[in-house]
Write a structure and sequence with these properties.
This protein has 415 residues and is mainly alpha-helical. 78% of the residues lie in helices and 0% in strands.
Length: 415
Amino acid sequence: MDQTTRTGAQDAAAVLNAAVIVAALGYFVDIYDLILFNIVRVKSLTALGVAGDALVTEGLAIFNWQMVGMLLGGIVFGVVGDKLGRLQILFGSITLYSLSTIANGFVTDLTAYRLLRFVAGLGLAGELGAGVTLVAEVLPARLRGYGTMLVAAIGVSGAIAANVVARTMDWRAAYWVGGGLGLVLLALRIGVRESRMFEALRRTDVARGDFLALFRSWDRFGRYAASILIAMPIWFSNQILVALAPEFARALGVTGPVSAGDAVAAFYAGLVAGDLTSGLLSQALRSRRKVVLLFILLLAGANALYFLAGRGASPARLLALCGLLGFAGGYWAVFVTVAAEQFGTNIRATVATTVPNFVRGLVAVVNVMFLALRPSLGLFQAALAVGAFWFLLAILSALRLRETFGVDLDYVEAD
């Protein structure tokens, strides 16, 4: 075996370690549970007596409860991750969202549905940030992008699994499967060790998990806000154009019905391919920032094509357009890597956990904006107006972020 082959094998072994595998599988279950409501929205709400336009308004309201739960959970689990350890987040979050997701399969009224999706959101908040932080700290700098790429690519395929399960099982059983997968994952966590970088920091007197430190410096706050805003176009496209694909299909004159589950599955299939492409491209270009900007522009183009090529299209073409939205939005792997690389070890878990959950939590704002503009502007114009707002913020934020490819992460943020 020559030196190049030996080095390649060693790099592959380093990337495919226990931390990466558990983080990837954890994110798989996280995405399954996160997206499942959008897939079973119509079936579950219809079974609970909801009909007509209320399927949209009540569906968005319940999803908002879930996303607000993730917003609050991101703060709690992020601080815990920096104070007590990255593995503590994994254990607590998996337990909470697994039990609440199982309970979701037993709901009989909308109040319980909202409450349990809120609790599930609290638990779902901790998984991705803990996994990405752990992977970023245990892998060599030159391999970090590959590790987080695998976490994201494997994780987002959980949405495809959710659609398959929801199509073959009753919506209640689909929730039970999601919760059961989470409980199984707890057993796999046993073989994962805490990062040495965090263990070394824990032996010092440096303050850890200070969430308010992000707001005591304009530079730090600017990096934090920009890290959040660059990913908002992904969730705008997912929550408005994809989750409401059945309603947009009717408005666009699509020649047949389109299910939300198929649209979500197509989007996430594209997202898997996009995450792999953007991750590999960032490694090849040795730049996170350039790839984020490129994919934001690609996603803007995919949004325009959704409206232009979707008119009078077949259901298959609209689903293909949802897949294109997913591919162009597939810079999620690079986005979470950027967030982890922007800050020091003493607040890295806080940032890496809160940033993706603030993105998800801001979906509630996206929904409110869309619902407020829809009566006066209509379905299309409301979506275009809301989308333009978030795309503009994302582009400006990407231009503001510093390049972090290959930076040494063994440092702390000091006031």
